[in-house]
Amino acid sequence: MFAIGALVVALAVVIWLAVTVSRGGDSPDAAAAASTSETGEPTPGSTSASTTASSTRPSATASDTRSTEPAAAASGQCADQSLAIKVSVGQPTYRIGEEPVFGIVITNISGAPCTRDMGSGLQRVSVHSLDGGRQLWASTDCYPDGEPDVRTLDRGEQAAFTVTWTGATSQPECAGERVAVPAGAYNVVAQMGSVRSAPEPFNLA
Fold first, then answer.
1. Distance between alpha carbon 59 and the CA centroid of its chain, in Å?
2. Rounded distance, CA 173 to CA 151, Å?
3. Could you tell me which residues are beta bridge partners of residue 30?
4. Position with higher pLDDT, 18 vs 163
5. What's the pLDDT tens digit per position in 128-173?
6. pLDDT at 31
7. What is the C-alpha separation between 138 and 132, in angstroms, rounded?
8. Please, is 203 exposed, middle or buried when counting C-beta atoms within 10 Å of its C-beta (0-12, 13-18, 19+)?
9. Distance (Å, rounded) from C-alpha 136 to C-alpha 188?
10. In sequence order, what are the residues at sequence separation of 6 or more whose Cβ sits closer than 8 angstroms to the Cβ of residue 131?
């Protein structure tokens, strides 16, 4: 009887130990360790945030590219105050019978490109007495019309033209008789709209 009782007690101890060992995996410490391991990995929320940040970067790059593209320069009409005009003489002295050649340079002095019709009918070149008191000839007296010549000038850009004078007088609408201008000292002036050049002296001999 004593042996049987001792065997029952021993069997009870073994069963208790087996139950205790089998329940050890659910201990609070093990659960805490499992929780720590999970939080160390990316969560679905953090993955989504990373994807969103990545998807917004191309958009920001495109915006930066657009802001650095140069805007197309729109060319407006060249107002008179946006132009400067200069006249020159081919040589300081011409002999009677020769045809003086005058050079005209029109410059865009504004800060932006602009467009203007600079046809020969819109340019006016005139010859005056040296004191400027008498006009002897103007390019538009006998040839008031001309072919259009539309130019677009960038800021600081120039357009150059030449005008040849026969050496004879003229009047508006080519009225009256045209006669040869005598030897002497004269001035030539160029004009586009209300913009006039400084007078340039030359001689007929």
1. 25
2. 27
3. none
4. 163
5. 999 999 999 999 999 888 889 999 999 999 999 999 999 999 999 9
6. 37
7. 13
8. middle
9. 10
10. none
Which pair of structure tokens corresponds to residue 139? 């390019």
Any residues with CB less than 8 A from the CB of 168 and at least 6 apart, and which? 137, 178, 179, 180, 181
Across residues 192-203, what is the average pLDDT? 97
Q: Are 82 and 110 in contact (CB under 8 A)?
A: yes
Write out the two tokens for 158.
Answer: 């120039």
- Residue 67 carries which side chain, given as an amino acid letter? S
Q: DSSP letter at 98?
A: S
From residue 54, give the alpha-carbon distance in Å to each of 5, 43, 45, 111, 188. Answer: 74, 17, 14, 43, 71
pTM: 0.63
The tokens describing 72, both together, are 């197309």
